Amino acid sequence: MGLPVVGMVGGGQLSRMTHQAAIALGLSLKVLADATHDSAALVANGVTVGDHTSLDDLRAFSEGCEVVTFDHEHVPNGLLEALEAEGLRIAPGSAALRHAQDKIVMRERLAALGIPVPPFTPVATVRDVEGFAKHVGWPLVLKAATGGYDGKGVWVVHDVEQAAEVVASGVRLVAEQLVPLRRELAAVVARSPYGQGAAWPVVETVQADGICVEVLAPAPGLSEERALEAQSLALRLADALEVVGVLAVELFETADGLVVNELAMRPHNSAHWTIEGARTSQFEQHLRAVLDYPLGATTQTAPWVVMANMLGGDDDGDLDRRLHMLFGRDPALKVHLYGKVVKPGRKIGHVTALGDDLDDVRRRAQVGAHYLRTGTWLED
Amino acid sequence: MGLPVVGMVGGGQLSRMTHQAAIALGLSLKVLADATHDSAALVANGVTVGDHTSLDDLRAFSEGCEVVTFDHEHVPNGLLEALEAEGLRIAPGSAALRHAQDKIVMRERLAALGIPVPPFTPVATVRDVEGFAKHVGWPLVLKAATGGYDGKGVWVVHDVEQAAEVVASGVRLVAEQLVPLRRELAAVVARSPYGQGAAWPVVETVQADGICVEVLAPAPGLSEERALEAQSLALRLADALEVVGVLAVELFETADGLVVNELAMRPHNSAHWTIEGARTSQFEQHLRAVLDYPLGATTQTAPWVVMANMLGGDDDGDLDRRLHMLFGRDPALKVHLYGKVVKPGRKIGHVTALGDDLDDVRRRAQVGAHYLRTGTWLED
């Protein structure tokens, strides 16, 4: 039918759910996976197993793709530049993606754009950290400049000794003020090469141990003014960085306003709720954006939508039996399983509840995710 | 994760969309396709190419499947019985499926159950047809007892000569009164082996040349009493025939009430609207039913949902360009493309519109499907 071929590097759940969206658009996602048992590799037809840090593997994979996109940030930027130089269309492009790959690059660029970020400085020595602590006080945050995710690569250090331990690990670091925050928000938008932007409602993300456990859409009690500010900031950032695809901007809400925490340039956990909760899901939108199709409507489909992550427990339980029990208790809950081997703390699925009453919707999502994880019902 | 394996015989769009639903449930549909370019074979990982009329191929395909289900009715019933005798779980079972495979069997059973059907009789000779015409008059309908779909295998004959032509073709036939109908409806339900039933809102189906072109959910102006009657009839039928999975009951609405036209025991065109338009889609529900999971909520997600089929035009146009134009005009329309080679009249996709105003929603669906097919906008 002459429809384009989209390649996605990475075989995780983001690829898996993007493939699901691709099917409706008449496409079949080509996936570059690490292994045949990767989440997306289990369900997609066009799977290549290869190394996303190998230029040869990336080049072979990209053959015949109209555009190549990503379910993670781990492809070395130099390889992306090399592929672009060979004429491959990559979305987001290497120049944009650097800001999601390197926190120092990101912080410096955002500061230059006048976008609020926490006080920060690159640090190489304990002395650097000490100097920075004089301005922001202890405790402060040390972050690996590259490669962190889900709380990994982030350390809250309370004194010089703790800082020394982190510095001794040898990773490139940025130090940041530990921002006194009320809560975390996310503004997720998409941008196409044509320059069209589209923003979903701003959400509240609830974290535990640095991992997102729950997303509330829209963010409860957020003023329209503040919501518009967050959406505008994200759209402006997408434009300034020339992002193509989904851009997730993780924000701290503080007494003094919004501060940008992290960026991701791909479908993001904070927008999984859009699968049922918005007229266009982030996965469809990401495909539309990278293909330069006009973007879809971002209208919310119910007054309240709550997504709860299902983190792996200590054993893999009997998921089949648990599904029976959960579906019996809540026939309207939507379950998404990623086909992943269960490991403690690993994101192995999520559930989404929708409805008119936030407390009820939130409770249903929490009960569902907890039950699938543990096989026990949360007490009232 | 210990989740079951579901096999689906047939690689058409129903398999394709069932695979999409399977992904969320942590599954990957195993598909028995006729060819690697079949609609579902393009997007699923576990594809076997084989002959669904070969017991050997069916047996090999079913290896390791917890349950095997179907995207069409063309597997000879005797083969299904043989597989069941070998211990394979088939859903729906061969005894139920016969009623969707053979119109004479279906008509006789429904009549015996006291469910309203048009006056009918099996016919083998022109004299049989003539005799039947004395009761119901000309024109009347001749139908192939087996193998018909989308208007194929259905003939409206006006006199003995026309009847003689059809009889001469040698196919097994049933003659039916040409029912004077107001409109066509469909009551789609699902039933699990446990015996749980769930019904979606009753819809109006709009046909052209015997092919469904549009589905309006819920059926406009249908009284609650009549809607309940249709749902009850379908649920009762599902129980009586021990259907497992989705059962679509196509109905004629006449001056005297409802009359059953056809049955299908699989996901059905008249419920494609449920993908976005109901809390649980027919594809997820079919999987839940065949796996004997508790069934999902069938609540409609918007006051009006209209699906319009996209039938192939005379050429395959430039679908990529048409998608650009259509998405630009209607960012909230949902498009589903099946990846099929375009042939005139062939179902190659569908679009779904949702909203508060039926006229508007219907117009959007019609405009979208027409544009994707022809590359021209319907005039106002």
Task: Write structural notes for this entry.
Two copies of one chain form a homodimer. By secondary structure, the first copy, chain A, is α+β, with helices and mostly antiparallel strands. Chain A has three domains: 85 residues, Rossmann fold, CATH 3.40.50; 59 residues, ATP-grasp fold, A domain (Dna Ligase, domain 1); 194 residues, ATP-grasp fold, B domain (D-amino Acid Aminotransferase, Chain A, domain 1, 2-Layer Sandwich), CATH 3.30.470. Helices cover 33% and strands 26% of the residues of chain A. In chain A, the strands form three sheets. In chain A, strands 9, 10, 11, 12, 13, 14, 15, 16 and 17 form a nine-stranded antiparallel sheet that branches. The first copy, chain A, has a four-stranded parallel sheet with strand order 3-2-1-4, covered by helices on one side. A four-stranded antiparallel sheet of chain A has the order 5-8-6-7, with helices on both faces. In chain A, helix 1 crosses helix 10, helix 4 packs across helix 5 and helix 11 runs antiparallel to helix 12. Chains A and B meet through helix 1, helix 11, strand 16 and strand 17 of A and helix 1, helix 11, strand 16 and strand 17 of B.
